[in-house]
Amino acid sequence: MTSGVFTLGGAEREAVLAPALAALTERHRRACPPYDRILDAIGARPPYERVADLPWLPVRLFKTHELRSVREDQVFRVLTSSGTTGQRPSRVFLDREAAAAQTRMLAATFRGVLGERRLPMLVVDSRSVVRDPALSARGAGVLGMMNFGRDHTFVLDERGRVDAEAVKGFLARHGRERFLIFGFTFMVWLCLRGLGADLSQGVLIHSGGWKRLAEQAVDNAEFRRRLADECGLSSVYNFYGMVEQIGTVFLEGPDGDGLYCPDFADVVIRDPETWQEAPPGVPGLIEVVSTLPTSYPGHVLLTEDMGVVRGVDDGCLPGRRFEVLGRLPRAEARGCSDTFGQGG
Amino acid sequence: MPGSEVTVRFPAAETVPVEVLLAQVRGRLETGDERVRAFLAAFGRRLLRPALARRHPELGSLGFFLRPSELARTVEGLGGEHVRVPRGLVFHVPPANVDTVFVYSWALSALMGNRNIVRLSPRSGPVAGVILDTLHEALAEADPVIGATQRIVSYDRDDAVTGALCAACDLRVVWGGDDTVNALRRHALAPHARDLVFPDRSSFAVIQAAAWSGAPGAARVRAAEGFVNDAYWFDQAACSSPRTVFWVGTASDCDAARADFADHVARVLGERGWGVDAAMAVEKRVAAYGLAADGVAERVEFRGNALADVTLVEGAAPPRRWLGAGTFAHARIGALAELGALVERRDQTMTHFGFAGAELDELARGLAGRGVDRMVPVGGALSFHRVWDGVDLPTEFTRLVTVTR
């Protein structure tokens, strides 16, 4: 893996990001009145000496509120996420500059593992997910990744069944050179292992979370071991990212020893009781920071994912090395306004 | 036909088709029936056992409500010139989440001599299980008519079952909010039958600032404990739990009283070890930050995860929705009468501190039914009363026969 955007060690990164994010905080404060009101109400004010001192927003605010730092007529794209059932989707507002930056930095992040040129690409999904006019988050994810490949071949047919013939054809054309495989973690687990195909030249990039695999007691180590054993697939990269920080992905190192932060981003693990930064080894809520969100105040976000820093400057890439441990459950109240209608 | 069956949980039995359930519920009781009183009193006595009441304080309150003297007061309070008789078959739909509500509703209806079918959510919490076990203990010593006339059932969402129960009942009692009421109203009742519904409500507290600051230390501690009970027992989501606290007085009096009140509440929370988990902590941040983003809140303060205090912008409408367990909006008003302009139909319980009875009477008359059905001292929000949401339940659970001699 060439270094590209994975060059900054912990201290160096802190020195670059803290002032950049503090400046971004003030910029959003001037440009986004609701954001300014939040920071006023919680008493946040500079100086912010460290990244961990910056005020964070709960990521769910992008579902409940319209937060943008550009005029309505400067909005170039509005991204939406699929909420869980009954929830509104997140809305993320990009102007031309932010949209261009996210595309450019995403490419830079993957360049280390994919190289400069577009690789032939196997998509572990169905073509129908990218054709749906109301593009799902899954469809948008697939479409975004398709930029990094060529000769896109879908592993599933339009009806969601494994299309062994299509895969065979793809491998006959490209199976002896490096090629890209992309899919959601659970789909990859379900669909690739039974193919009986030689994927040893493939580079797998996958994301989407471990919840359904955890239900089957499959962790990352098992995932990697079985893909290597059963498909010869040894070049495997998980990533973590969210639409609310589009363009920023935290990419797994080649040895599967954790997720790494690109130079323009970092994570802070917070103890959900004290909200202070948790030391390496101690799990907490994941806060993601990135300098990419310039058109909306999404540069310092508290996610609803639990995670843990495994080490700093001690892995195959510099900076923090972390792991995502799973999503917080939704808070439930024992109230009396409870609905009979919701299948209770 | 599968899908139109119900699981009978009291008296515990197997799964039966809804038609069989309806055929099984028979027997005759009279209003204030001695056999029901004996059964309820035995049940209530068991709920007051110290070990149980300590573990589930809400069961202690329920046991208190079912004391023989309390039952006698309810029956004797009916009186009047007419002969009071049961309505017949009452179908109760309590909320899934407040485990004890179904018992109050059902117990009063049984005391009035009705046959009852209570639909208990399959998602009901652990306390519901304790209640069912205790009911069975009491049933073992009860007159057989209890087992014959009373049923608690569970079933997953099933329009056929709900439709059959609605068509068969003489009174339908729906707790649990607007969505539940609307969902149930799609099912027709018999022409003579009635609906008794409890839609979404919200509640607030009002504190006379100077009275707070002038109250003896012990009174303030007691009030803070009562406030914590009101708010935290059901994660502040019970319809009678306060969400907004109105402070009455001058700005400086209110600031001083609020600060002292927050200290007291935080201390009670600390002593009791009340906490909220990470998911609830995030929920509260989302809600409180959202109010700030909307320009409704000017200040948001957290004392640990358990207590979040939100200062409303002057003139902002107080939020009525749930903001996560232990999130309180605060607003200042100059005089109690100013509540007249703020109260809405959906406001249910006003917990108060520091006001004279005459002031409260005057406010109640001034509001003239536009909102607020209960005014109770801080600490009394969750005390169930036979008059609830402005409705006299024993009256609703009975019919009157006119006998002119």
UniProtKB/TrEMBL annotation, chain A:
Acyl-protein synthetase LuxE domain mapped to chain residues: 50-341
GO biological process: bioluminescence
Secretion signal, residue range per the UniProt entry: none
Pfam families assigned to the protein according to its UniProt record, in alphabetical order: LuxE
InterPro entries linked to this entry: ANL_N_sf, LuxE
Taxonomic superkingdom: Bacteria
GO molecular function, one term: long-chain fatty acid--protein ligase activity
Protein name (record): Acyl-protein synthetase
UniProtKB/TrEMBL annotation, chain B:
Enzymatic reactions: a long-chain fatty aldehyde + NADP(+) + CoA = a long-chain fatty acyl-CoA + NADPH + H(+)
One GO BP annotation of this record: bioluminescence
Signal peptide (UniProt feature, chain positions): none
InterPro entries: Ald_DH/histidinol_DH, Ald_DH_N, CoA_reduct_LuxC
E.C. code: 1.2.1.50
Top-level taxon of the source organism: Bacteria
SUPFAM superfamilies: ALDH-like
Keyword Oxidoreductase: yes
Pathway annotation from the record: Lipid metabolism; fatty acid reduction for biolumincescence
One GO MF term attached to the UniProt entry: long-chain-fatty-acyl-CoA reductase activity
Keyword list, A-Z: Luminescence, NADP, Oxidoreductase
Family, as annotated: Belongs to the LuxC family.
Function noted in UniProt: LuxC is the fatty acid reductase enzyme responsible for synthesis of the aldehyde substrate for the luminescent reaction catalyzed by luciferase.
Name listed for the protein in its UniProt record: long-chain-fatty-acyl-CoA reductase
Organism field: Nonomuraea deserti
Phylogenetic placement of the source organism: Bacteria, Bacillati, Actinomycetota, Actinomycetes, Streptosporangiales
